[in-house]
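Loading example: each entry is read as two labelled lines plus one structure line.
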Amino acid sequence: GEDVEQSLFLSVREGDSSVINCTYTDSSSTYLYWYKQEPGAGLQLLTYIFSNMDMKQDQRLTVLLNKKDKHLSLRIADTQTGDSAIYFCAEIVPGGYNKLIFGAGTRLAVHP
Amino acid sequence: GAGVSQSPSNKVTEKGKDVELRCDPISGHTALYWYRQSLGQGLEFLIYFQGNSAPDKSGLPSDRFSAERTGGSVSTLTIQRTQQEDSAVYLCASSLGFRGRGEQYFGPGTRLTVT
């Protein structure tokens, strides 16, 4: 079945790197996504990675994919207070019209 | 440019009443999705539209929930005889289509509270 798991909470100091981890179960997933949700707001698409890639970098964001272990991570370099939010990992259900299966979300708290 | 919009942003209703939630997708996006975000269940898929048809309604939790889409654009999610467990944030997303990457862009959501 489909399941996406994330740790629920991460606290980092401003300026440090944050690493948010995710595991998924459907090995046939084609795309994996990271979304950000700030308090009281909807979901903002941050980045995605295709399943035949190992890494994708986009400015301060680096996505790593270990397909063998079904492990996805999001690294945020030089974390700022504005990065405080909930981060959701999501996978596409193959053959499911691209509906997304989300993890429970990781709450990132950035402190001075 | 205009993103996905949803209305109302907040809705408080009494148990047993019907509610309608509206989603206005990004212009030109043929695919539209409804999701629900609640404390106990996290983010869960409800229904998918391609144009005006809904080939996947598998996430609708009961027959009190229905949705329609007209003109390939605006969608309405209707909940009849609301129950307290329906309290959640209802999110709508749209994308260019279900082929390829199919990135979904989300609206701000409608927070529904059933008292």
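The mean pLDDT of chain B is 92.
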